[in-house]
Design a protein that fits this description.
OB fold (Dihydrolipoamide Acetyltransferase, E2P); single chain; mainly beta; 1 helix
Length: 158
């Protein structure tokens, strides 16, 4: 089979419009569903695990981010994470002002590639730092719906 590059010129029209989306919807897939059920039913965090690369990663995906191998298993991860980066938000992604500033942090977990983006609470802005150890605070069991929002927030590990 031979593949040849198309060389025929085509007149393309361009439109200058804003195509930002308010929300994106993704299917969770089998591993994603398991991930959210572990949060909902157990109040535990898991990561996808590639047995070929011996690596675990978040967010959970059905294929290894390193080798492309299909991933079929989740493993429990340490509930203590580390603040890798953070920002102080005064307005929402929809342009609405928050009544009080929110701290949004990128949280990494030991021996896991990737991490989670979530709100930090119970920390003064002047005490906030990269490398701070934090842990999740889950909603009450009856309030959980099987979503990342089942984690109310992260707070400093004491």
């Amino acid at each position: 089979m031979s593949f040849e590059k198309e060389t025929k010129e085509v007149n393309l029209r361009t439109y200058k419009i804003n195509m930002e989306a308010e929300e994106y919807s993704y299917t969770t897939g089998n591993l994603g569903e398991q991930f959210f059920l572990k949060i909902k039913n157990e109040g535990k965090l898991t990561a996808a695990y590639c047995d070929k690369c011996n690596v675990r990663f978040l967010p959970v995906r059905g294929y290894c981010i390193l080798c492309g191998n299909e991933v079929k298993n989740l493993v429990y991860i340490d509930m203590e994470g580390v603040v890798e980066s953070f920002t102080i938000a005064k307005i929402s992604s929809k342009g609405e002002e928050f009544g009080k500033e929110k701290i949004i942090a990128y949280i990494k977990f030991p021996n896991t590639l990737g991490g989670l983006l979530h709100e930090l609470k119970n920390v003064k802005i002047e005490e906030l730092k990269i490398g701070m150890k934090v842990h999740p605070v889950f909603k009450e069991m009856k309030e959980r719906i099987g979503s990342l929002t089942d984690i109310s927030y992260f707070e400093p590990k004491t």
